[in-house]
């Protein structure tokens, strides 16, 4: 059961980048569609948790939910949705995989500690991968908006890393509340902020939102991306540990790159593929200590997990 859910999560997260691209190409305003996605998904999940008496609506009265939503949802997806107007879904996915690198740098800056040798090597490797990934677009098909799109995705990961570090404190403070409910609350606030941004920056046309591709994209992202994918992620954290579910970052970007090329005819250069693989290697090196700890602990828990899989 654990491994099946893990594979489903990786596939879902790997397809969301293409789903965003399809909706935007259909004419859906990026900020409005993103805001609608997270506001609806968060509201449905939180109401379900309230009905099941696993959360309270008063959770929305805490400023921590607003601050977490501003980082984990608003900052990340405002930049990602805007950027996918100019980037392929595969490139956006791989650039999004730099999040662990950003988190490491932020935590190091906060703690004022020196990077370990493996972490430094991982950072340098990941940076080299980003350069290789961006090189074809800069050298051969230079576009100001293409470069700005890449920069926007990377900026979004700064928001993500800040929100992740802050959310750990929030989870510790609200230990009696389900992480799924906490995530739903922050999605509601993040979605609301995105809709406010849309109100001042976009012109909403009903006919574009009712286009078949725009509707299917929105429904898929609400049901599969936000409700199913994130719920499985937190379920896996509860059943295993925080490290194991996070390894989707090593798999989903490459899934997104392949899906974009095969299903949506997105151009993929050899250098971009090599750069993407190097970024993933860099992320693995950065998290080597955590992965090693997980593997060793997994030897003792492996039998129990195998039993759950076979049941």
Name the descriptors.
single chain; 311 residues; mainly alpha; 14 helices; globular; disordered C terminus
Summed up:
The protein is mainly α.
Please specify the SSE layout and strand pairing.
Blueprint (H helix, E strand, L loop, with lengths): L1 H24 L4 H22 L11 H21 L5 H8 L2 H13 L5 H23 L4 H30 L5 H23 L4 H4 L2 H28 L3 H4 L5 H12 L6 H17 L1 H23 L1
Helix pairs in contact: 1-4, 1-10, 1-12, 2-3, 2-8, 2-10, 3-7, 3-8, 4-7, 4-12, 5-7, 6-13
Gross geometry: globular
Compute the number of structural domains: 1
Mean pLDDT: 82
Helical residues, percent = over 70%
- Give the N-terminus to C-terminus distance in angstroms: 8 Å
Radius of gyration: 19 Å
Order of helices and strands: HHHHHHHHHHHHHH
What about the largest sheet?
none
Helical run tally: 14
Helix/strand structural class: mainly alpha
List the uncertain runs.
301-311
Number of strands: 0
Portion in strands = under 5%
What would you say this structure looks like, in words?
This protein is mainly alpha-helical and 311 residues long. It has one domain. The chain has helices spanning 2-25, 30-51, 63-83, 89-96, 99-111, 117-139, 144-173, 179-201, 206-209, 212-239, 243-246, 252-263, 270-286, 288-310. The longest helix is centred in the middle third of the chain and has 30 residues, at 144-173. The radius of gyration is 19 Å and the shape is globular.
